[in-house]
Every structure is written in C-alpha cells, then in structure tokens.
Amino acid sequence: MEKTFIMVKPDGVQRNLVGEIVSRFEAKGFQLVGAKLKHIPTELAEQHYGEHKEKPFFGELVDFITSGPVFAMVWQGENVVKTARNMMGKTNPGEAAPGTIRGDFGLTVGKNVIHGSDSLESAEREINLFFNEEDVLLYDKQD
Ligand code: CMP
After folding, report:
1. CA distance 34 to 134
2. Global ipTM
3. Residue to substitute in 6, 54, 109, 118 for testing ligand 1 pocket (most ligand atoms within 8 angstroms of CB)
4. 19-28, pLDDT tens digit by residue?
C-alpha cells in the first residue's frame, strides 16, 4: 500500500495545529502508521531539503525547520502521495485554495505549516530519513 511522509512544521506545532491536521487525514480515510515529535538536527534538515541546496532561501529554510519541534508522520492509503498534496494546497499559502491546509492556516511561503512528499520516490527517501523500519507499523484497519 502507498505511503507518504507528512510533517507539521515548527509553526504548525507552535500554533497547536497538530490535532487539526491529523484529524483531516483521519477523516479522509488514511491510516497513520508512524508518528514522532522531533527536533530536527541541522544535518538531517540539509539532507531532507537537499534538492533546494542551491536556492537562495536554503539557509532560511534549514534555520526555520530546525527552530522548534516538528511532528513527523507516515500515512498510508490508496494514492496517498497525490491526495495529501491536494489536501495541503499550494506551497504559497497566498495561492492555496480555501479548504486546503495551507489555504486555511498558512501565512507565508516559508511558514506554510506542513510538508508532504511530492512523489513516491521522495516519500520513500523521506520516510527512510526520519523513521526506522520498526517505527512504521503495519496493522489491519477495520472498516
Ligand atoms: P516544503 O513543501 O517543505 O518544501 C520546500 C520548502 O521550501 C517549501 O515547502 C517552502 O516552505 C520553502 N520555500 C519555497 N520557496 C521559498 C522562499 N522563497 N522562501 C522561503 N522558503 C521557501
């Protein structure tokens, strides 16, 4: 079954949005199979955001994501990578549609509350960066 990596960023944790965000994915019907509150070390932040290394905002991005705890999760379900991206809305909260997580709660392109993997390949890479195999639990979900 498809899995994706979702992370409530430090602004979302500070603003008590963890429960709201978990609720949205639960209500949609996805299954939570891994979760941890974590203060990201700089090295891990640089690895996670490696594809943005040359971008002018890279330093700012790493500073922000390491500025306080994040809530890292693995969600499982059919087509979860793409559906989760749709539920999050566009990266820039100013362009994110109302009803999406960033559209409803995001403030700026940096402080945009949530990160979600953009492809199956990213999901696998990001899950492996943040979770040990034994921390992702596979259990039967009753309908
Ligand atoms: P995320 O989905 O976590 O992936 C990369 C992040 O870079 C993105 O969300 C934004 O929060 C951040 N980002 C993109 N553009 C900018 C920018 N111009 N300034 C600061 N952060 C940015």
Report:
1. 10
2. 0.93
3. 109
4. 999 999 999 9
